[in-house]
Amino acid sequence: MKTALYWEKSGDKVRCLLCPHYCLISEGENGLCKIRNNIGGTLVTTIFGEVTSTAIDPIEKKPLYHYLPGSMIFSAGTNGCNLACQFCQNWEISQTPDSGRQKMSSDEIIKAALNAKSFGVAYTYNEPFIWFEFVLETAKKARKAGLKNVLVTNGYINNDPLMELLPYIDAMNIDLKAFKQVFYRDICKGDVETVKSTIIKSFEKCHIELTNLLIPSQNDTEEELNAMANWVADISPDIPFHLSRYFAQYQMKSSPTSIVALEKAREILSKTVNYVYIGNANVKDGSTTKCYKCKNLLVTRTGYSISNIKIVNGKCGYCGNSIYGTF
After folding, report:
1. What residues make up the domain containing 25?
2. For the whole model, what pTM was predicted?
3. 133, 129, 109: which is closest to 121 by C-alpha?
4. Mean pLDDT, the chain, as a whole number?
5. Structural domain count, the chain
6. In sequence order, what DSSP letters do the residues of 96-143 get, joined into one string?
């Protein structure tokens, strides 16, 4: 437990300023994220130096396909999230205040990453932005130790904390869950404009890739996908975009996304976005990287294993076209 950053007193309550919920929290209560509590008139984070799980993961699992492909990264997560997505795929840890955490200091995380010969630390599994104080401390130490920092995030954070953390972040996968405000409001208890702002600002500072969990009859219309694709392309058509297959989880019991719908969505996005992938499904060329100019195969992926890398010094090994990413 540690005093939180980004809050203010409001009478006998405290107001959290970390994310756009601006939770006004009474004594003994917590915010929507379930892990920022008012204790004695002070906002504290209950997950500082505590993890639910750690692992050595392929970077492709985040998913990041254009950032050091084929490498392994030490990954850590804890409890809590500041969205309440009805379809959450990690609800067992993200939607509970405590699912059995263990203490692990930032120094211990750095040591574990170095011992594993990992190139860095990934803050993942739950929402790392609500783990803000610990992620910031650990990311600073990781940078000093020569390690990279990776976030897998919903992008739901206010500007000031985002700008404080970004200088220490090397790569991010950001969820763009939908492109309509009604989806974020009714299904996730958030807003899309905050996420869009995070994407724009993060792209200016570090490597980013985007993920969209395609849910039947929720965020999969051609109109919405076209609008999303055009918006992403206006930032940069080179931002890798991962379409992920939905399966029933948590409170949403819809049928899984069809392969046909995933392929159709990829077709729509690929009109304006250069690198579109399909994950969580066995789809031909769903995870392969091709040069968008000469169409030659640059990276072959089977599950999380890669082979046949034909990218040389950040360029297509066939035509010399620049390929977005760090290879």
Report:
1. 2-45
2. 0.97
3. 109
4. 97
5. 3
6. SS-S--EE--HHHHHHHHHHTT-SEEEE-SS-GGGGHHHHHHHHHHHH
